[in-house]
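My main concern about presentation is that the manuscript never shows what a single data entry looks like. Each protein is reduced to its one-letter sequence and a matching series of backbone shape codes. For the editor and my fellow referees, an illustration may be useful. For illustration, here is how one protein appears when written out as sequence plus structure tokens:
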Amino acid sequence: MNIKRIFVPFLLAFVIFSGCSYSVYQVKGRPSQDLKGGIFYSLPKTRIRVAVTFEYTNFDLAPYANYAEKYLGIEVDDSRAWSISDVDITAVAEPDPDYFYYVEPRNSDISVQVSQKGLLKSVNSSFTEMGTADDYQVEPVEKLSLSELLYSTANYNLYEHVDTLYTRNGVSGNDESVVLVRSSVEKNDEQRAEEIAKQITEIQQKKMEILYGEYESSYNENALNFVYSSLDREEKRMLQLFTGSKTNITKVFYVDPEVSKVVVDDQIVELFRFSPQKGVVDSTDEESVPIYCNLRIENSLRAVSRYAKGKPAKTSGRKAKTKTKFSAFKYRIPEVVRVSFVTPSFTKQKTVKVSQYGTIVELPARKVEAVFDSQTGELQYLRKH
């Protein structure tokens, strides 16, 4: 009876550990033994990528800005050349240098996939990330002559000026003859602005005729689309003479979430300083305002973290040694973080998953099939064999 009590637990332990076909070592210092054809992988570490798109207006290309409101009803503020038009917040995964692991296979019954960065993608799975291909074809558009569709080309700088002169004929001076003297006189800025504004109005009218089906022609739909896009392009070109040329410029900023023994619940980082007149400037510009990025942890994994840690092992009064060898793969459950892009005029928020704020857990110590999110390290699929 005593032999049975001893033998059965020993047999169960043998079955469990014999089913594990690999060993996992945490990479610290030098290895205790020679490496035997294993593979390295890392837990992910998240960086916050903030892509800010600025709109720059070049008012040097707007010679008629002073007449925009009079002839087009457009209010132009040439004192603000720069503005923030869009913000894109994403999480970028990088290998965490403090959490590298080495997997040593004991036989050929295990397969491991890692990303190009060395992040764990799958264990014992044939899963591959599928890309999307643009397999559609663009239908050719009939090229048309726009001479009959667009307004006639105008000479914006000159107009014909007629002077009427009266001369006296005969001795008595009673007879008069009329002499017309024609000359070209350069138009002033307001005259040119008024003429271009009329051309813009004509283009807008033709666009409306196409939209509402009032345009009389035998052209097919593709041809009309081509005409409409050409009209729209010409309208934008002329409008730039009043509003200036607009250009989008994107700059990328990175934020590294702070990691300490005490979890930081709120982190504020100054991304850059911004001036509506100059764009991104340094801290010496007195007229600039700071643009911030705020990270706030949602603390959604408190219960998971406590459950994953379980009961502390008994050490019998001795200090527990740090383990570097494990019988299972380590992975992370990422924490949700609310990222805010804060400006004096607006705030944009987005929730992302930050790996280093999450909880480290491990796969079952036997043969399983597992698939991970290579960006966050999160377990996506698990099946026991």
User: Anything to note?
Assistant: Residues 16 and 366 are 7 Å apart (CA to CA). The chain has five helices and 16 strands. Confidence is low (pLDDT under 50) at residues 3-18, 130-159. The radius of gyration is 37 Å.
